[in-house]
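DEPOSITED CHAIN:
***
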Amino acid sequence: MKRLLLFVRANVLLLFIGLAASSFVLAQEAERPRKDLIGITGEYTGRRNITKMVPPLYPEEALRNGVEGIVEIRIGLTEEGKLVKIKAPPDINPLFKKAVAVAVKQWEFGPFSGEARDVITTFRLTFKFSIEDGIGRAELYNPPEGSKGAKRMLDYGKFADWENWVDITDEN
C-alpha cells in the first residue's frame, strides 16, 4: 500500500511539473508576435480601409490589342494598414497583373480594428479593365446589385487562394 501511495504521489508531482512547464511554454508562445497568422475578410470590408487609391494604368499593349477583362488579386495588410503582400492567380494576364501591382503599391490603408493582433488581414480586390470608344479604363469593379459578382464581394474567398496564388508584390 505504501508503494502504491508513493507511486501515486510521484506521478501527481510529475504531472504538476509537466503542466507547469507546458504553461510556461504556452505563455512564451503567446508573447511572441505571429506575423504568419492570416485573417481573411470580404472585399467590401477591405475596401472600407482604403484611404488613398491610385487607379491602374491601362496597359498600352492591351489597349492596342483590344484586350479587356476582370482581374482579381488578394492583398495582405498588417493591423496598422501597411501593405505587405499582393497575390494573384497564376493564370492572370501579365499586362494587367503588372498594372494592378504598380497601382496598389501606391495605395494607403487605415488600420484594421478588432481583437486580432499580429495578424495579416487579406482580402480580394477585383478590377475591371474595359475599352470604350478606344479609351482604356481600369477601375475597381462594382458589379450590378444582386448579381453573382455582388454576392462574391461579400464572400471572404478561400484561404487556398492566399496560399496558392503567385506573389506579385515586386512587379514593377
